[in-house]
Every structure is written in structure tokens, then in C-alpha cells.
Amino acid sequence: MTSSPTTSSRSVAAVLAALAACLAISTGAAAQTAAARRQAPPGAQVYFHYPLDGLRVPERFTVRIGLRNMGVAPAGIDQARTGHHHLLIDTDPGPPDQPIPSDYNNIHLGNGQTEVIVTLPKGRHTLQLLLGDHRHIPHNPPVMSQKITVYVR
Q1: Tens of pLDDT along 55-97?
Q2: Do the Cβ atoms of 75 and 85 come closer than 8 Å?
Q3: Which residues have a Cβ under 8 Å from the Cβ of 124 and sit 6 or more positions away?
Q4: The pTM is what?
Q5: Which of 50, 62, 111, 119 has its CA 20 to 30 A from that of 29?
Q6: 18 Rama class: left (phi>0) / alpha (psi -120 to 50) / beta
Q7: Helix (H) or strand (E) holding 11
Q8: DSSP code of residue 76
């Protein structure tokens, strides 16, 4: 059975219409997520109390976190001017309009903790802090520390 040019044109048009609809839905969802990002207050800053950049640390050590001009609230608590900490180990932050992943390199402190015990293998490692809102999405602009390097002995 062969299809006529009209049937083929209709099939192509139907596929293109479906693709356009999918693109519109995904673009709309991305715009909604970006628009819904929580504003960071002016001067908000997250930083390391310990360790400091360049420090030699044992394989098991405690990371202590400081925060200025914002408060800490557990994940899931939607409260203005607050967030919860994420520790990024040997990785870079992801897209600012997406939830911060939860894996070996992205440690979520979702209960509102301001310190965490970390165990790392010997060698050079980078650490960075990133504050997430109640949905684990970075604020706008992101409240993020400088990346530091530690040397595990």
C-alpha cells in the first residue's frame, strides 16, 4: 500500500504539531520554575567556618557552615528569607533553575543542619556550599560560597 502525498503531508503535519506542543509544555514548565525561584535578600552569604581553603584535614572531618542575612529552615518549609544547606564535593553547581541533585557529590542538609561529618579519600578535594529553597532550588541570585580546596591526609 502506498500513501498519497496528501496523507504523508498530514502525517508530517501531525508529528510536527505534536512536537511543537511538547516543546511548548516543556518551555512553559521551565519558565514557571525560573519565575518561581525565591529571591535572595541583599547581602545574603553562605561561608565555611571550617575547613578553610587550603587546609589539610583527616579523612573524617566536620564541615561547619555560616550564613549571613538569611535564616535556615528544613527542606519542605516554605518560609521567606530562608533556605537549607547543600555541600558540593568535587563538583560544580548545576543549572540555577533546577533542583540541586542528591548524590555522593551533592550532600543535602535538609533538616536544617549547619554542620555535617564528611569522610573523603586521601587527596585533593573541592568543597562548595549552595543554599536551596524549600524545593532544593537555588535562590535568585544563588547564595553560594567560594569553592575551596582541602587536602585529605
Answers
A1: 999 999 999 999 999 999 999 999 999 999 999 999 999 999 9
A2: no
A3: 149, 150, 151, 152
A4: 0.78
A5: 111
A6: alpha
A7: helix 5-35
A8: T
Cell numbers found for residue 101? 541533585
Are 104 and 152 spatial neighbours (Cβ–Cβ below 8 Å)? no
Neighbours of 144 (CB within 10 A): 20
CA distance 134 to 80: 10
Q: What is the DSSP string of 15-68?
A: HHHHHHHHHHHHHHHHHHHHHTPPBPPTT-EEEEEESPTT-EE-SEEEEEEEEE
CA-closest candidate to residue 62, choices 46, 74, 48, 73: 48
With cell 542538609, the residue in question is: 109
Could you tell me the CA-to-CA distances from 23 to 28, 29, 95 in Å, in that order?
A: 8, 10, 19
What is the grid cell recorded at 92? 560544580
Number of residues written out for the chain:
153
